[in-house]
Amino acid sequence: MTTIVFLLVPGLHLLDLAGPAQVFSSAADLGHDYRLRYVADRPQVPSAQGVPVLAEVAWPELTPDDLVLVPGWRSPALAGTGRLDPASVRRLREHHDSGGTVASVCSGAYALGQAGLLDGRRCTTHHELQEELAVRYPAATVVRDVLFVLDGRVITSAGIASGIDLALHLVAMRHGPGVAARIAREMVVYARRNGDEPQSSAMLRHRAHLSDTVHRIQDEIDTRLADRLPLAELARSAGCSERTVTRLFGQATGLTPLRYQHLLRVERAEHLIGQGATVESAARAVGFEDARMLRRLRAR
Asked: Which SUPFAM superfamilies match (predicted)?
């Protein structure tokens, strides 16, 4: 039986914990031998969302087949956060030194750094913490804007929901992609994402504005990604003129509606290609007549 130990830090984010825990629990429900344990420096750990989590204070006996995973905690900055007793940091390091695997979600990478496990390795964390992590651990190579990074037996992931992607990847490595896909379906996860996919999608990057009109236009484009959407049709959906659509959309996003749709199409196509689709089939799936336009846009 493989033991998954979650090392809990005060202020932990519940989804950083619950997402991976659900993946491994679902794998156990399918007949795979996983036992989940929750360890902390104290028997009750406060979460960032206000729900306390009960934990063991004594570590179980571990073997090289076991995994220790550190979920992230509320941390606008790393300094002064992630308080772990030296004994817990030492156990984390000893598990790796004895041949075991360690992993983190979001700011949990800081705990791995405290244990000396990031030096000379590639790693990642939430995009808002990447710069500080790089400054605090200059011997590490912080990989920007990816979902997770595997460097030997040290595995780090980005923020919050990326822990689900990391756990699904680990299940796929051990039991095959079919098992991981079945768990993803049971969890109603849209798709298992690859580690090198960006943390911030084009859809999110261009939604940080306050224009209700532009949000309505983007809603139309987002839901009809593969359709041909003439400017006149977008104007009707927004209840304004074509000229107003162009002006407001440019002010809010810096793009034309067509350019925004192309960005979404390319990003979706990249995801399909990463899941094994051909360039041609991905191009057709997102609304291009053939792969030539997709290749040109990818080249940009």
From this structure: Class I glutamine amidotransferase-like, Homeodomain-like
